[in-house]
Design a protein that fits this description.
This protein is 31% helix and 11% strand. By secondary structure, it is α/β, with parallel strands linked by helices. The chain has a domain at 10-103 and 145-164: Rossmann fold (3-Layer(aba) Sandwich), CATH 3.40.50.1000. It has a 6-stranded parallel β-sheet with strand order 3-2-1-4-5-6, sandwiched between helices. β2 (57-60), α2 and β3 form a beta-alpha-beta unit. α1 packs parallel to α6 (152-163). It starts with 12 loop residues before the first strand and ends in a 13-residue tail after the last helix.
Length: 176
């Protein structure tokens, strides 16, 4: 298992793409043509714990399905921080950053494909799953040992929370 080589104490907010990061990069389609996504329960737990500790979290995705919004709302991510149908992700990244008064070096972003590169080049700590596109890996400062949708989110959030002293720190760790 690798560790993030960055001063995680500088990080104040976390932002994530969905497809290929928090869900597997293969998406089955329903008979109605709706994309169906997988979710990783351990990724969800880590995001929920970060939300319970009031860490600013953002979802920036090109996807538009209501199921994705419901998933992240249920984990405690604020509705205004769930950017659906994000065609130019840097715009939504900047909105999130500016709303919280953050500097780029205080934000960790996890992406896996070409539309994420502009944000990854801007944020302080660009991360990606093990199965990210080669172009993304070339700009990432941390490449998780886990694939997207298979624990990449948990790997990154857990390392962040441990450095902050928030992993299993109190009763919030033991409930939903």
């Amino acid at each position: 298992m690798s560790t993030i080589n960055y001063d995680l104490n500088k990080i104040k907010a976390l932002a994530f793409d969905v497809d290929g990061v928090l869900s597997a990069n293969v998406i089955p389609m329903s008979t109605e043509g709706e994309p169906l996504r997988t979710v990783n329960i351990k990724d969800g737990y880590a995001l929920h714990l970060a939300a319970r500790h009031e860490i600013p979290l953002a979802i920036i995705t090109g996807g538009r399905t209501e199921a994705v919004r419901k998933r992240f709302l249920a984990l405690g991510i604020l509705p205004e921080n769930i950017y659906m149908g994000s065609s130019v992700k840097i715009r939504d990244y900047r909105d999130f950053r500016d709303r919280y008064g953050l500097r780029d070096e205080e934000i960790l972003y996890v992406g896996d494909d070409i539309p994420d590169i502009e944000v990854m080049r801007t944020c302080g700590l660009p991360c990606c799953p093990r199965d990210a596109a080669p172009e993304v890996k070339s700009v990432a400062r941390y490449i998780s040992h886990k694939e997207g949708g298979y624990g990449c989110g948990r790997d990154i959030v857990e390392q962040f929370l441990k450095v902050k002293g928030l992993w299993m720190a109190d009763e919030r760790a033991f409930g939903w």
